[in-house]
Amino acid sequence: MKPVKQIKWCALFAFAVLLLTSNLYAAGTPSSVSGTVTNADGTPAAGLAVKAFHKNMRGMTLLGQARTDARGLYRIRYAADGDVTLVARVFDTAGRQIHESRPVMHASSDQLVDVVLTGPVQDPVKDPAVKIPGSNPILHPLKNN
User: Fold this and answer.
1) In this model, does residue 10 exceed pLDDT 60?
2) In this predicted model, what pLDDT tens digit does every residue of 29-46 receive, in sequence order?
3) What CA–CA distance (Å, rounded) separates 37 from 74?
4) Is position 61 within any domain?
5) Total structural domains in the chain?
6) pLDDT at position 64 over 70
7) What CATH number has the domain bearing residue 48?
8) Predicted pLDDT of residue 122
């Protein structure tokens, strides 16, 4: 083989390898979040939806979702493109959010997030004892004169 043709084939091969590996990197690092969802008394919370989100300055990006099994276990697989701040949200069978985990900064590629449900989520619209951030509570009922 002539040296010029050999260089061309080597360059072509190097370009193909670079192209293939850049596509694999662009797909993201295979990652997962898993854990157990239990009730306050320690019993497993089965059949609930768990959604994993990446939280950043612009909001939340859904990474994936799963249902808890009979033992309250879940696993969500996703592809991470860089550093992930992970938040897990749990939803009841009617689709209402009942829990949100604290953010896990710099989540590992196999992050564990266990959840203990402490009771129903309070609704600030229906429950006046719940203070809405940034609002002033009404200290006494309004009276009609």
Assistant:
1) no
2) 899 999 999 999 999 999
3) 8
4) yes
5) 1
6) yes
7) 2.60.130.10
8) 43
CA distance 36 to 50: 10
Contact at 8 Å (CB) between 116 and 103?
Answer: no
DSSP string, 52-82: EEEEETTEEEEEEEEE--TTSEEEEEEEE-S
pLDDT exceeds 70 at position 9: no
d(CA 109, CA 75): 12
Q: Is residue 140 part of a domain?
A: no
- In whole angstroms, how far apart are CA 26 and each of 14, 80, 81? 18, 10, 7
Q: What's the distance, Cα to Cα, between the start and end of the chain in Å?
A: 102
pTM: 0.65
Average pLDDT, the chain: 77
Q: What is the largest CA-CA distance in the chain?
A: 102
